[in-house]
């Protein structure tokens, strides 16, 4: 049965080590097509939330449901094959651009790869390379710019066609034109999927369905941009600097 992308956290507590709780009483609900953003200072627990969704770590207290099923009862491989992590630390390997986009979807055809690259706004830079989709990348993708690597990451996720998207936004900046391409590509990719965003650009957060402000592992504020601005609390502070 294909998973649809309803995610629920019920009273989730978590610590990497005994004794130190990193997440405290986390409750949230996300459905397909929704974008949920996590903001908060460094060490607040934002990445930890996404580490739990894909079961890189197991929770010790509370429940995480995926379409109503306890994620501990879903095979890890099946679970992860429904998810894509986009943008941060794109893992590129030595091989062609085509193979790097195809990644785990070994059955993806050339047409599907090009279609994904077009959706991701990556097609334009790829077709301008001397060898196009057959261009060889070095193991770390160092022959590409930071922005180009991010566009490839979006194309890879588009080919994977995941139910859940985790967008861990890179802190390093790209030029305005590339930034526009990335934002457009991401918007198309997110359509109909459940998206969790760890964002550094306030512009990425603004149009989220729900924003969770994390502090010391607790959700201290939640709401959309307007609601949180009106609250004049932590989110407002983050926005007004
Ligand atoms: N932590 C560990 N072990 C790990 C990862 C994190 O003990 O393997 C701690 C560090 C921190 C807390 O968990 O005190 C939350 O870390 P997380 O990486 O979730 O924080 P963040 O909100 O993602 O911070 P940043 O904005 O710096 O990415
Ligand atoms: Mg983090």
Q: Which architecture of the domain at 1-82 and 165-173 and 194-241 per CATH?
A: 3-Layer(aba) Sandwich
Please identify the structural class as seen in this structure. Answer: alpha/beta
What's the Cα radius of gyration?
Answer: 18 Å
Shape, per Cα inertia axes: globular
Provide keyphrases for this structure:
six-stranded mixed β-sheet; globular; Rossmann fold; 241 residues; 10 helices; 35% helix; binds deoxyuridine-5'-triphosphate; alpha/beta; four-stranded antiparallel β-sheet; 12 strands; binds magnesium ion
Give an account of the 3D structure.
A six-stranded mixed beta sheet has the order 6-9-10-3-11-12. It is globular, with a radius of gyration of 18 Å. It has 241 residues and is an alpha/beta fold. The longest helix is centred in the middle third of the chain and has 15 residues, at 146-160. The termini are far apart. The chain has helices at residues 46-53, 76-81, 97-102, 110-119, 123-127, 146-160, 176-190, 202-206, 225-231, 234-240, and strands at residues 7-14, 23-30, 35-39, 61-66, 69-70, 83-87, 95-96, 136-137, 164-168, 194-198, 210-215, 218-223. The site of magnesium ion has 2 residues, from helix 1.
